[in-house]
Design brief:
By secondary structure, this protein is mainly alpha-helical. Helices cover 47% and strands 4% of the residues. It has two domains: 161 residues, no CATH class; 86 residues, Arc Repressor Mutant, subunit A (Orthogonal Bundle), CATH 1.10.10. It is built from eleven helices and four strands.
Length: 292
Amino acid sequence: MSNIQWFPMYVDNDPALDGIEREFGQIGFAVVVQMFRYIYHGKKGYYCELNNEVLCSFVDRLRMDSRRSLEGCVSAGWRRVSEILKSSVKRGIFHPGLFEKYGILTSLDLQKNYLRAVKRRQSAEIDGRFMLVSPTEIPKNVKIIGEMYDNSQKMYDNECTHNITNDVVIVNSADVVGEKDMVKEERSIVSYYLQVINPNISKSICDILISYQSDGMSFDCLKAILDDCRNENHLNWSYIHAVMKRKFDAGVRSLIDYRKDCEAYQASKQGQKKKQSKKEYTVPDSFTRVDV
């Protein structure tokens, strides 16, 4: 038996989890935490495959309607849970690279908690393909099965082998009649930040970047902000974050919005300069001219 009976719940603010709650309300938070429980108490204890069978079982466990009509359309409960889990992957709560490549839900924290729990067991296993922890963190009683996952690769790559449709997470689009076959791929601003700003990124910065993109700022808009900051040699995260927040609060979401906002700002600066240059200074009456 690989599953575990308990797991720690962190009380610190988690930007990614907070973003899920803002987007979906308390049901979003509940679905994510229940998925943690589902994974920990599952067959493996640190990951689970996300396919139609698992999704249906999980929805049943949440007491949400998982029935399908004769035409094969998914239920509201099924669709809602799919949207929440898809957003959780985008926000980095579950590892996007492993989800896209293998169709599984796991994370570094899930694996660390699993390893802590099985440390005193006689033996345990972890699949090397999915391993996010460093080999030095593996207890002696845990055996690594198969080839190890390459942690040097980017956390968010563009190659997608696991289908994510507009409406529901599925492994085989033929399983759901009437769903769109087109795969919706989104470029990640985290990958771009790693390329052009700093190859070393903390989890908090990663979460903030993901939250901006998940909350409606387009990739092209965020990319333009990073490009302008880099061109002006402003590579400090505090400066970049301040710019992103100012633009977001101003309602900037698309590249067009960003360009218009920048043009308006430049026009405002030019207008202030013209006013200053045209300002006339009068000689005060108390000024006395002295002839030399």
